[in-house]
Structures are given as structure tokens and as C-alpha cells.
Amino acid sequence: MFQRLSVMLMKEFLEIRRDRWAMFRLIVPLVIQMLIFGYAATFTVHHVSTAILDLDGSQASRSLLSHFEATSRFNVVDEARNQKEINDDINQDRAVIAIVIHSGFARDLEKGRSAPLQVIVDGTNSNTALIALGYISQIVSRFSAEQAVQATVSRAGLAVPEVGITLEERPWFNDSLNERWFFIPGVIGTLTLLQVVSLTAFAIVREREVGTLEQIMVSPIRPVEFILGKTLPFFLIGLGDIILVSTVGILWFRVPFIGSVWVMFIGSSLFLMAAVGMGLLLSTFSRTQQQAFALNFFLVNPFFILSGFAFPIAAMPRALQWFTLINPLRYFLVVIRAIFLKGVGLAILWPELGAMALLALIMLTISVMRFNKSLD
Amino acid sequence: MTQEQTEPAVRARGVNKRFGSVQAVQDVDFTVSSGEIFGLVGPDGAGKTTIMRMLAGVLRPDTGDILVDRVDVASDPEQAKLHLSYMPQRFGLYEDLTVAENIFFYGELFAVPRDERIARSQELLEAAGLQAFRRRLAGQLSGGMKQKLGLVCALIHTPRVLLLDEPTTGVDPVSRRDFWAILYNLRESGVAIVLSTAYMDEAERCSRLALLHEGVIRHCDTPARLKQAMPGVLLAITSAHPRLLREALAGKPGILGILLMGDRVHVRVDDDLHRIPEMLELLAGQGVTQSDVTRTEPGIEDVFVALLGREEAV
């Protein structure tokens, strides 16, 4: 048993070493993708091109608009003179956002009435639009609070009273709501899954294509030994991947790592077992590398989208939520974020770890069974 | 001979295999003894590869059982495979490993002890004429050399039963000669060899042949006895127009079969004394020239066509 397994492993690493570019192919794309994700995966929006139209021309309206000019979130590209120019700005993609202050704005404020403010957003990029709208409402509510205070002061001539409820936000585990802290652990899991699943699947399908699989199967080797020999290298490569990208995340992007390395190791191992199980299962459904490629292509995006990497699972339709239950990435993202940012241990994470172990077991079992059958 | 010595190395009994609606192999029975080269001969699709794969234990028969070296392949595959070697039409080599590394890998898979592996690979590489290429990557060998390397890998564990599925298809004549020299040596040392082939000259070299047609073994005997079993007398006619000659003779009384062999035509007749004058007359009447008519010894190709009743060039 041990001899056959070790010669399988030896052969596998010899093949990787013989391939001059293997190390390069394994490491460089991973690091580059990590850097791209680290810099690009953000929901913060800067310099939104904005057109403004001030039909009131009052001190109050100018004061409000100056708030927009003061922040780097918005970039005023056009100070329009009429509604038509505003429409043109939006239609011709010069501006994503237009802010229109109608005449009577200052008068309404003085009389203590609510003063309408018109905001036009280009909804084609709903993401940017929504985020920008959020900023606008922040600016506007700050402005109206100032106005309210001034109004009270000028009317009563009194000191500013403490009114209303002030919301003081204090997010835990990520004080400044640094999105990078949220994304980078996710990137580690995602990239590792993609690489390990495809490497495992392709390596096995290649043996089938070249005919070495049949040759190995007429030797006294048992299917389990073959499968172990074929998946262990990719398990180890996956572990290396996780260490590599985690290091980049921690050292380069300064993501804190509060948790225990051991919990991380256990979580990563279970996740990788599920990942090689997935690759193996995929290989049993593919006769050629093209088929494996097509199947991999078909599966990768759903597993990525339905993992909670960027889109909250709670917001998905019920059927898709059920599907996420068989997605190892879903559990690993919870685990890895919790270990990085919260530093929690096995006592909290056991349901996710158990789910990954169960998934790994199911996928490996199905693969071994299908493997025995597929030889016929 | 004692009972033990006559116990065959391979025994197939009542083997059937169906793929969907196609009966690929039907009621196949045969035995192969140690020191015998058993040939499976038949056209493409006759079921040669299916039988081979069932013997190798990578395909399960629907019914029937197969004993290799007295071990049931289906019930104890790991044990059966210890003394078995199977070489498919294209042997699976790791192209980015060297010749020596491939041999090492297959040796270890069969748990060949180190000293034995080194001695054996030395001997086999020498016989295959590959000793100068030990360090070359398998992917950079020619087709014939790859096939010989496949044979070396297949023999590294000194199997008692060797299964070869069209092993010399697409192999150059020199490599084929090396190949057969190795097979004869193996036969001498008591290995049972099952070989499928589409080459008639190779079939001729086998100890016994099974003529396979549509999954059924039609005839099974030594090449010599198969030739004797062929009805009629075989005549070889040399002609500048072999196709015209065949058309002229086809279906005429007493003509049992016609086979084109390049510029010669093999004609099988029931009685040469009567039929030769008749034929010459007929051909003269149709204006087909022929230079020579002689009685000839049948080759296995003639036997094959005669016994399977397929009157066409193989």
C-alpha cells in the first residue's frame, strides 16, 4: 500500500518538477490575482462625475453645492444653466449624477418647510449609482442638520439644544469598515478553490486521455491508492496556495490575522479535501480535457457567486440558498473571515468545519464509487 | 504430464459482454497454456479488444468467468493482476518522464524488488535496443520505440500471463522484429501470451489461433490444422488484370472463393483437375490474360477468408 502510494506521489512531483514552468504557472497568476482583487475589489466610489444646476442661486443653495465640491467622492464636471443641459450631460455620459436645486429652495428653508432637492442618477450602473446616492443622502442630512440648528438659533436666540437621537456607529472586528479586510480573506478561499479543483480534475483526465490510467488500473493498485496518490499533491499545493496568498494579504495589504494558525490549518485542510473531492468528481464526468474544461467553466462562476464572497446569501432566492449548502467555499469564507478578523476558534466554527468535512466525505465517496464503475 | 502442468494459464468460460444493443462478445470459451502464444484474429469490431480488456480485469463480463493463473479476475482483481500484464494498442507512458523513470514507476507499482528491477530492465532494454535511450524523455521516442518501451514496462514484473492488443500496429519492421524476438524468448520461459493482431504474418507465428467474427469464436486451432480444415484446393493465378479475372470467375461452378493478393489471385476450387481446364477456357473466352496457374499452400489469410466466408481482400 505505502510503496504504491509513494511511487504515485514521487511520479506526480517528478512530473511537476520536469515541467519547467509549473512553479511559475502555479504561483505568479495567484499572486497577481491576489493583488488585483486586493486593489480592485472595493465598493468605495471616488470622483463620481456630477453635473449641477442651481436654479435658486441663493446663499443656501450655494452652500449645499459647496458640500459636494468639497468631497473627493464627487467631481463636478458641469455647472449647467438649464434643465436641458443637465439632460444632455446624463444622456451623453458626461455625468453619472445630476443635482438640481429648484428656485424657492432658500425661501422654503427659511419658512421651515421641507425644501425639495432633485437628484438624477444614471441607473445603468446601478452599483455606482446606489453608492453615490448613499453619499448624497449623507451630505444632505448633514446639511439639513446644520440648517435646523441655525434656524433654531436664529428664531429663539438661544443656545443650541441637544435634540433628537444621534446614532453612533461602532462596527466590531473591523472598526473602520475596511472593505479590504472583508475581501482579502475571501479572495484567499476563492483563488485556492479555483486552482485546486481545476488542477486535480485536469491531472486525472490527462491520465485517462494518455492511457496511463488504464495502465495503472491493470496493475495491482487499488482505486483508493490511485486516488490518494493523485489528490494528495494537489492538497499540498492548495495548502501552499493558502499560505502564499495569506502572506501577501497580511504583509502587503496589512489585513490583521487574529486567530489561531492551528484552527486555520484545520479549516484549510477540510476545505482542501472538499476541493480535491470536487476536482475528482468533475474528472469522473469527463473523458477528455476539453470536457473537463467546459465543466469547470460551467461550475466555477456559480460556486463563486453563491459563496457569499460579495453577494449576501441571505438576500438570494430560497432555491439558490439551498444550493449554497453544497458549496464548500460558502463555509470556508465564514471560517477564514472569522479566523482572520475575529480570532474565534473551533468552539464557534464547528458547524462550518463539520459541513466541509461532510462535503469532502460525500464527494470523495461518490468519486471512488464512480471511479470503480467508470473503468467498465 | 501431470494434472498440474496442464492446468491452463488462462481459462475463459462462457464469456458474454453486451454494450447497449450490441452483443460485443458471445459465449467465448478458450484456454491458453504456459509457453503458448494464442492469437485472436478477426476484423475490426470482432470483439478482440473487448476480450482483452475482460482478461485484463478492466472490464467485467456480463456472464461467464475468467481465470488467470488460476485466480478469478472478477472476484480477486488485485491478486490476478500481480502476475498479469496487459498492453493495449497504445501503451500509456508518461511522456514527460524518461525511459528509465517510466520503467521505475511500473516496477514499483508491481512491487518489484530493486535488484531484480535493475537486472530485468537492463536485460529488457538490451533486447529492445533501447539501452542508449535510458535518459531520453518517453515523449521524444519514435512510435516503434515507444511501443517497445511499453513492452519493457509491461514485462518489468516478469508476468506469467501477457496480454497484447495489436501490439505492432504502426510499428516499423525493425522494431517488430525486436518485438517478436522478445515474445519468443518469453514463450521459451513459459509465459502464456494472448495476442490480437490484424497482421496475417503475425497470426502465422502463433501457437494457436482463434478466428473471431462478430463476437463469436468461429474456429480455434493451430495454424497448420486450420489450413487443413480449409475445404478445396488453392490455386494462385498471376495476371496483369487481377480484378477482371476475379469478375470473370466469380460465382462460376466449383469456385469456392477468390482472394486478391496484389498481382496474384488466389482461387479456391473444389477439384483442381477438372476446374483448371474449365477456368482457362472461360478466361480465354473473355479475353482475360493470365500467365501462370499453380497449386499453392494456403496462408492464414486464405484460411481466414475461407472459414469466415468473407470473399474480399483483407
Key features?
A: 376 residues, alpha/beta, abc type-2 transporter like fold, 4-stranded mixed beta sheet, elongated, B: alpha/beta, Rossmann fold, Alpha-Beta Plaits, 2 domains, 6-stranded mixed beta sheet, 4-stranded antiparallel beta sheet, 14 strands, 38% helix, 27% strand
How are the elements arranged and paired?
The complex is a heterodimer of chains A (about 375) and B (about 325).
Chain A: H1 2-18, H2 22-40, E1 48-54, H3 59-70, E2 74-80, H4 83-91, E3 97-101, H5 105-110, E4 118-121, H6 126-156, H7 179-210, H8 212-217, H9 223-252, H10 261-284, H11 289-305, H12 318-324, H13 328-342, H14 346-374
Parallel strand pairs in A: 1-2, 1-3
Antiparallel strand pairs in A: 3-4
Helix pairs in contact in A: 1-9, 2-7, 2-9, 7-9, 7-10, 7-11, 7-13, 9-10, 10-13, 10-14, 13-14
Chain B: H1 3-6, E1 10-19, E2 22-32, E3 37-41, H2 48-56, E4 63-68, E5 71-72, H3 77-82, E6 84-87, H4 99-109, H5 114-128, H6 143-155, E7 161-165, H7 173-188, E8 192-197, H8 200-204, E9 208-213, E10 216-221, H9 223-229, E11 233-238, H10 242-249, E12 255-261, E13 264-269, H11 272-286, E14 292-295, H12 300-308
Parallel strand pairs in B: 3-8, 3-9, 6-7, 7-8
Antiparallel strand pairs in B: 1-2, 1-4, 4-5, 9-10, 11-13, 11-14, 12-13
Helix pairs in contact in B: 4-6, 5-6, 6-7
The total tally of domains of chain B equals: 2
Q: Count of helices of chain A? A: 14
- What order do the strands of the largest sheet of chain B run in, or round the barrel if closed? 6-7-8-3-9-10
Unreliable parts of chain B: none
Largest interface: A-B, 24 and 30 residues
Overall CATH architecture of the largest domain in chain B: 3-Layer(aba) Sandwich
Q: How is the main sheet of chain B built?
A: 6 strands, mixed
The count of strands of chain B amounts to 14
Alpha-beta classification of chain B: alpha/beta
